[in-house]
Amino acid sequence: MTEELWTNVDRQICDRLLPADAALDAALDASEAGGLPPISVTANQGKFMELLARLTGARQILEIGTLGGYSTIWLARALPREGRLVTLEANPHYAEIAVANIARAGLSEAVEMRVGPALETLPPLIAEQAVFDLIFIDADKRNYPGYFELSLELSRPGTLIVADNMVRDGAILDSDVRGREDEDVKGIRRLYELLAAEPRVNADVTAIQTVGSKGHDGFALALVR
Ligand code: SAH
Ligand code: DHB
Ligand code: MG
Question: pTM of the predicted model, to two decimals?
Answer without folding.
Answer: 0.98
